[in-house]
Amino acid sequence: MRTAVRAGRQRFVIVYAPIPGQVRAYGRAMRDDPRDTRLPSSPGFWRSPLRGPWFTSVLGLVLLVGITVLFVTGLVSYAAYNPDLSPVNDKTPDKGILGFYLFAWPTNPHWLYRLNQGVHVTLGITLIPVLLAKLWSVVPRLFALPPARSLTHALERISLLLLVGGGLFEFVTGVLNVQLDYVFPGSFYPLHFYGAWVFFAAFVAHALLKMPIALRNLRQLREEKNDLVSPRPADPTVSRRGALWFVGGGSLLLFATTAGQSFDGPLRRTALLAPHGGREPGSGPNGFQINKTAAYAGIDAAETGADAWQLVVTGRTGTVRLSRSRLLELPLHSSALPIACVEGWSTSDQWWRGVRLRDLAALVGHDDPPDLFVESLQRRGAFRKAALRANQVADPRSLLALYVNGEELSPDHGYPARIIVPAAPGVLNTKWVARMTFGDL
Amino acid sequence: MRPPRIPLGSPFQLLLLACSFALAAYAGIRLLADDWFGVALWFVGAAVLHDLVLLPLYATLDRATVRGLGAVRRRDWAMYVRVPAALSGLLLLVWFPLISGRVEQRYPSATGLPEVGFLTRWLLITAVLFGGSALLLAVRLRRLRRATKQRPPAVH
């Protein structure tokens, strides 16, 4: 009865002692008997002694922090593509107000995208056990009856479908995309971006509704009873703390077998199951991680040969055609920059050598570097055309690279020439460059 | 007789949920723009598959394990089976496309990495997990046995 009185004050308490009048009106008095175990809608069906407000609250608060970081790094990653610069960079042209925060992506620090994306993907994978445990801890509520106690409660349950469906949708599309398993219904970018907003809308509402309760549950020394506590718990085989260590162990294992793909050398070898973990694609100066090989991109060796390939550079004063030997006569500069992929993996700084983008701009009459539109020889795949903003072109470390680590680029790293820009997402560092057009986009 | 009135609930929560739905609808229209059926299927399907297939599956397996160990009076061994099995299952769940070989065509041609045998790696990790767990159990049993031997008879 005391629980019933509390239910009026604290909305999260669903009562397993029948509320006089209300429950009987639904004719479900029998199912609310804690000894009844036949249906998942009866509390007695759920036997685990682990379920309870403390366990759920701890997991919920971990997810509150973790998912907020995932959402912010996701939005930052989206901004890094400069989607408002040109339609070729924008896989979500109908984003509307969801792009309200977009800004010109900076080139400093040069590891900015590497860090952001490493955190986004590695943290996402690390949080999977926490998400699964959180869902497990509240599953009895999925079956709770009556389906709705009030209009607000009914809406809250619909919102939970967006929360659970949206959360799983985001994690599943992300996990599949980093493994190159493109089975989801559409292009990854719009699905993951719009899905994130649907999920986050439900997430914020859920956090605001539940966070005060979760914090109160953690502060209380004596555990409060609620609907998640089994009325007839089975004998425990592990303590709640032990179960939490168990979840943390799962996260640690995933972290330990994933994080290494953001580093070179022995650390990469520790990422035993991550797509870009384990080993490098070869040895020598070009033996660092590749996003898409020349064969995958449909690059024909005949087109990149010394006789055939010419870079077409267009700007204010017209068009210049440069063979590779003509390019090599221009002043060459070096910069140490990483390759960092949206899939979360990255390399340490590689030593690139080539022509500065701003020197190429000056060659076609732009002393003040403007935006740049780059086209690749690549036949298929997203981002074979890409746009760079004026601040990226102006950075002295931004190169049309011809060499890496003291050797000519290999075909898989973009021979005869590739773009490399500090802090830019990997796919904007166009490989097998064929044409560059300077000017406002 | 009047029909039963449905209570409204807290107005603050109602407003909060309305705002949440407005934003979700704004993004949702765009999410569903291309292949609304496919996306809706994935969205709802993810929740349904998790709640009605994955969770009951692992809960049933866990209950069967504990019951099976209980039948041979070894219920306290549950964690020594549960931990390695769950960790191995977790790795399989997350890295299923790589481990199962679903992407074995695309993976080497895209990354330039040889088909490195993720299945083998996963099996090795699984073996290490179960081996380590067995080792811990053996150590614990030895300690228990020694403690029982050294205990003075009066305690019994």
Overview of this structure, please?
The complex is a heterodimer of chains A (441) and B (156). Chain A is of the alpha+beta class. Helix content of chain A is 41%, strand content 11%. In chain A, the strands form two sheets. In chain A, strands 2-1-10-5-6 form a five-stranded mixed β-sheet. In chain A, strands 3, 4, 7, 8 and 9 form a five-stranded antiparallel β-sheet that branches. In chain A, strand 5 (372-376) and strand 6 (385-388) form a beta hairpin. Chain B is mainly α and 156 residues long. The N and C termini of chain B lie far apart (72 Å). The mean pLDDT of chain B is 91. The interface between A and B is large, with 81 and 68 residues.
Which keywords apply here?
heterodimer; A: 441 residues; alpha+beta; Sulfite Oxidase, Chain A, domain 2; 2 domains; 5-stranded mixed beta sheet; 5-stranded antiparallel beta sheet; 13 helices; 11% strand; disordered N terminus; B: 156 residues; mainly alpha; 6 helices; 75% helix
Mean pLDDT of chain A comes to 90
β-sheet strand percentage of chain B: under 5%
Largest interface: A-B, 81 and 68 residues
Count of helices of chain B? 6
Share in helix of chain B? over 70%
For the biggest β-sheet of chain A, the strand order reads: 2-1-10-5-6
The structural class of chain B is mainly alpha
Low-confidence stretches of chain A: 1-31
User: Number of DSSP strands of chain B?
Assistant: 0
Average residue pLDDT of chain B? 91
Task: Write down the overall geometry of chain A.
Answer: elongated
The total count of helices of chain A amounts to 13
Note the quaternary state here: heterodimer
Largest sheet of chain A: 5 strands, mixed
* Class inferred from helices and paired strands of chain A: alpha+beta
Could you list the spans of chain B in which at least 5 consecutive residues all have pLDDT below 50?
none
Listing every helix as H and every strand as E from the N terminus to the C terminus, the arrangement of chain B reads: HHHHHH
How far apart, in Å, are the first and last alpha carbons of chain A?
69 Å
Which range does the strand content of chain A fall in? Answer: 5-15%
Report Rg of chain A. 28 Å
